Amino acid sequence: MFVHLQAMFQWVVFKWHLSEGRTERALCAAAANPAPHARQAAAAMLLTTLAERKELDALVRCAALAGEAERAAAARAKLHDAHTHNPYYDFLYSLYLSRGHFRKAAAVMYERATRCASERGGTELRRRYIAAALTCLRLASPQHAFLARPHTKGHNATPQVIGPEELAAELREGDIEALDPVQQALKKSEPIDFDTLYPKLKDADRETLLAVTKRTISTGYFLPRWFLQRFMDVDGPCCVRALLSGGRLVEAGEACVDAMRAALVSLGPTHLTAAPLALADLLTAELHDHLHHEPSKQIYEELQKLVEEYSEVVVRTSDDMKNIQIKHPIVN
After folding, report:
1. Residue 230: strand pairing partners
2. Cβ–Cβ < 8 Å for 297, 284
3. Is the pTM of this model over 0.85?
4. DSSP secondary structure letters along 115-151
5. Model confidence over 70-114: pLDDT tens digits?
6. Of the candidates 314, 316, 248, the residue with the CA atom closest to the CA atom of residue 286
7. pLDDT tens sequence across 6-52
8. Under a CB-based contact definition with an 8 Å cutoff, are residues 176 and 184 in contact?
9. Which of the ends of the chain has fewer CB neighbours closer than 10 A, N or C?
10. Where are the beta strands (DSSP E) in 33-166?
11. Which residues are registered as beta bridge partners of 268?
């Protein structure tokens, strides 16, 4: 009975001090309350009131109510938007930092960043919260410098454990200025400037060339001849398929014609080069249905002629090599 009366008395004293703006006395009265449910209610009321007064730092310093305030703030943080003013995330972050719980502070900021990614208008703030989480992980001891990141596929998938390196990579992904110039160009809405990116694209790999090709086709611009030549050298079939799937039949035919000519020029007994005959067959089959289109018809006829010429040279070169072997046999 005495405990119940004391709890009621402390609750009245707490509310009186809080309403009068005496924050420290209100905190003392709430901490002195012997009833756990009363301390929880007081912590929840303090969160709301002190957040409005911008005095949450006083609650951060009150160790006696830390547990109750932490649980109340964690629940309320999830009920409010992450990218707008959310004092409950700020409170948890300050609380953990003040007590040296750097991994917990990182987890709070990463949770907020993850929510910002799925909320409209939170993209810019997401990087700020990831940077805060990264700073906290770097302050944590090595055995505690990790976070659990949920998988994007499936709600029941096992979370992925990440450290500062993975978090730093995630931060760089959102910073367009930190990307390679080609990747920057792919993320922008402007047409790709092939003259500026020539030093990067002239030695680019298959994946980069394919991405640039798809992006350029989607924007309605044409690909430079040197770029197509590089793509054909790296992976001719992939280049032709990308052009065909984008509706660039004539460009695909021209690229194949150039490849056939190069193979034909280099063909000889001492240097055999395989021509893209399979690609030529594929393209002539596609072009056959567009003979009413004059550029397509020209490419079709040129490809047919080059295939025939290449085949004749191959047969002649093969016969010459056979004759050389008959006249000048190799003796072991």
Report:
1. none
2. no
3. no
4. HHHHSTT-HHHHHHHHHHHHHHHHHS-GGG--EEEPP
5. 999 999 998 888 877 889 999 999 999 999 999 999 999 999 998
6. 248
7. 888 889 999 999 999 999 999 999 999 999 999 999 999 999 999 99
8. yes
9. C
10. 147-149, 160-162
11. 271
